[in-house]
């Protein structure tokens, strides 16, 4: 059986069983009326966030950026983009969040800078062979006159991972061409990021999310090696020249020493976007980052076998390492999960988005039912849960954004083959009316659809059957129930029904079937909007595509 609950988690370990809410700052709340979300906007919504019951906010980049990749192209890693506020605004946000017991995690983007970063401008101006070029990955081309890229490396956003400068040399960019990759063998690069971590930790930041953490150490020996795993979709084994090389762990061990200079030690979570394997959890070792995003649940369709398999595998992979488990179903990089779950298993999401969502018309009721059930399940799993802004409202993907409104570089770079990630980044609806549904008072940088009114926070606040109230209740209850990693599957006798125990008095059941099943115990929480427990809590059944927490009957 799972372990019994122990005393409260020590402060330094708060992130092991936390609920962390991701904010994409440009799309959360706009305080100054320029159509772009900002730090004062986030600050003005802290009461909402604290009422949700979350432990921490993870802020996607708010640094100065020409926005070639939604803020992940940074010109100054130690400042705030003037459109989003100032360092004083940042300090005020941290202070106000801390006052409410909400911690702040920020995004560190160490693989690349913006091509407008002073280092890159200097490198381009200084020319081939200059020390300034050593901070990046410049190479001569191959073929006649060096006209071909130096290697076969591909950019995640489409096309070669090399761009040619006016003087004929090429530089490497694993993402947009405006995001030149840094050379992590260069001591100044290491010092710059170590100083950056200290800069923010000194300002009171509680933790860091490390962008594409598995890509920093590259094999740059000459001649450059070919990349066997071009789309990054095969499990990695340490032999790829670009990703998940053994040397990368040494960088994180040195970062851990910095995190541990603080009291409490700063936490960190690695983003490594490749198939989960036993190597994935190595980043979560105690002397490295402690936590890693496990995207396997996010990649699963709404299907009991898929959910069961990824949960079992992640629990197993994590067990050998001892870092904290994480679960995530939505983020700023993927179509919203309420939408994904309402599509048939195996749907090609890119093709569906390209059709503006017309290939398979979405059934909203199905989307809501399944998303609510998945949330109730995810929040019952041991470890930390990462939520993405707007999922608490049950928001769907905006699949039909007009192409002339798209901002994500993916659309252009793939020759319009992929529509990109804007559909999950549309500014949030706070109220049912107003020029941008309460996001700000002067429009929004991406167009919001009319149906956003139905999902507005104000229309859900205080309504017991709403998605927002379900999240509030689940997070609050979870805080009382979950403080160990105890977990075991319980045989439900039905392959369409998942059941697991977290503690003697806490089990979760998810009904994927088309029939109603009994809840074998006393109801604690249900995803069913109609399923408010009666006074005894005894007489409950679980309708199709709903989930519940309950205390089992002895
Ligand atoms: C990460 C971010 C993504 C960004 C990329 C390049 O995967 O989540 O949004 O485009 O890194 O920085």
Low-confidence stretches: 1-8
Mean pLDDT: 94
Task: Compute the number of strand runs.
Answer: 18
Biggest beta-sheet profile: 8 strands, parallel
Q: Determine Rg (CA atoms, Å).
A: 23 Å
Tell me the span between the first and last alpha carbons. 14 Å
Principal-axes geometry comes out as globular
Q: By helix and strand content, what is the structural category? A: alpha/beta
Oligomer: single chain
Largest sheet: spatial strand order: 9-8-7-3-2-1-11-10
Alpha plus pi helix count: 15
State the helicity in percent bands: 10-25%
Helices and strands in order:
Elements: E1 19-23, H1 39-44, H2 46-52, E2 56-59, H3 87-99, E3 103-108, H4 118-126, E4 138-139, E5 162-164, E6 170-172, H5 187-202, E7 207-210, H6 248-259, E8 267-270, E9 290-292, H7 296-299, H8 304-319, E10 326-328, H9 337-341, H10 349-354, H11 364-378, E11 384-388, H12 409-413, H13 452-455, H14 457-460, H15 467-481, E12 488-489, E13 497-503, E14 506-511, E15 517-518, E16 521-526, E17 541-542, E18 546-552
Parallel strand pairs: 1-2, 1-11, 2-3, 3-7, 7-8, 8-9, 10-11
Antiparallel strand pairs: 4-6, 5-6, 12-13, 13-14, 14-18, 15-17, 16-18
Helix pairs in contact: 5-6, 11-15
Bound molecules: alpha-D-glucopyranose.
